[in-house]
């Protein structure tokens, strides 16, 4: 993680509500440039909703979200497009277009955002696909022809299509076997270091937290209850945090 703590995402007083259900109530969070932040919390605490709100898929009821110092909720459409070019998102299921090949999926954000000759997009797409450890043969395959792990990698290649500064990952290792999950963690860690990425990662995976996260943010009680390193999490006196970081699964990871 870089020494200067420059916040690239600043969330303040966020309120999200669906009908009578308040999911976030005054949530604050900073994400610093170059860090890998793991976002954890019990099921339904609003981790995915937080990610989706930051990237503009959910409009919050109240609060402010600054990304790269700009208020994304008040940005014009043109400003938003400029900001969106600077991040990539990997959704839980990869969210690939099923009717497009892997290469066409990776080219899609380039077609939308850049005006480049097709030969250049193809070359860049192939580069991203190799960066995530997929063989060249994968370029011409459709998502349905890939394993779950390969689909995640293809989704990651698409998230990297525009050379983003921030990557948002929603439970990237969910559904992978432990070896596949460890390999995916290693890939994210390597890419983060070599590309200097800031990573916002929603996860349930204690191995991922231990392996690649610089800091952890715990969602509970409709807000970010606490942030800190894994070591700091061990000292937090809160029932859910204690159970999560001291439970049998945690002991196996931190031992
Ligand atoms: N578009 C929506 N409309 C209505 N309710 C929603 C919507 N999106 C999410 N919710 C509700 O908001 C709450 C938080 O959902 P979210 O998916 O963020 O949880 P999570 O912390 O990511 O959970 P999990 O760990 O189980 O994936 C849930 O109760 C969910 O039903």
Automatic annotation (TrEMBL):
Keyword set, alphabetical order: ATP-binding, Nucleotide-binding, Transport
Pfam families: ABC_tran
Domain ABC transporter: 9-246
One term of GO molecular function: ATP hydrolysis activity
CDD domains according to UniProt: ABC_Org_Solvent_Resistant
InterPro entries xref list: AAA+_ATPase, ABC_transporter-like_ATP-bd, ABC_transporter-like_CS, P-loop_NTPase
SUPFAM superfamilies: P-loop containing nucleoside triphosphate hydrolases
Coiled coil (residue ranges): none
Protein's name in the database: ABC transporter ATP-binding protein
Native organism: Thermohalobaculum xanthum
High-level lineage: Bacteria, Pseudomonadati, Pseudomonadota, Alphaproteobacteria, Rhodobacterales
């Amino acid at each position: 993680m870089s020494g200067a703590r420059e916040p690239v995402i600043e969330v303040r007083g966020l309120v999200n509500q669906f009908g009578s259900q308040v999911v976030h109530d005054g949530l604050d969070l900073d994400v610093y440039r170059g860090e890998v932040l793991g976002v954890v919390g019990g099921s339904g605490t609003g981790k995915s909703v937080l990610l989706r709100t930051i990237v503009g898929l959910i409009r919050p009821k109240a609060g402010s979200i600054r990304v790269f110092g700009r208020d994304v909720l008040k940005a014009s459409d043109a400003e938003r497009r400029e900001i969106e070019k600077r991040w990539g998102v990997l959704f839980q299921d990869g969210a690939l277009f099923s009717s497009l090949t892997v290469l066409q999926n990776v080219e899609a954000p380039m077609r939308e955002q850049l005006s480049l000759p097709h030969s250049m997009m193809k070359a860049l797409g192939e580069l991203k696909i190799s960066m995530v450890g997929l063989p060249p043969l994968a370029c011409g395959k459709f998502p349905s022809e890939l394993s779950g792990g390969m689909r995640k990698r293809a989704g990651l290649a698409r998230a990297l299509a525009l050379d983003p500064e921030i990557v948002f990952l929603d439970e990237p290792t969910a559904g992978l076997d432990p070896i596949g999950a460890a390999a995916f963690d290693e890939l994210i860690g390597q890419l983060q270091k070599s590309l200097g990425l800031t990573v916002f990662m929603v996860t349930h995976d204690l191995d991922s937290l231990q392996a690649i996260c610089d800091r952890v943010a715990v969602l509970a009680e409709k807000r970010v209850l606490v942030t800190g390193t894994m070591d700091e999490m061990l000292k937090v006196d809160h029932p859910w945090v204690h159970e999560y970081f001291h439970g049998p699964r945690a002991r196996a990871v931190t031992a």
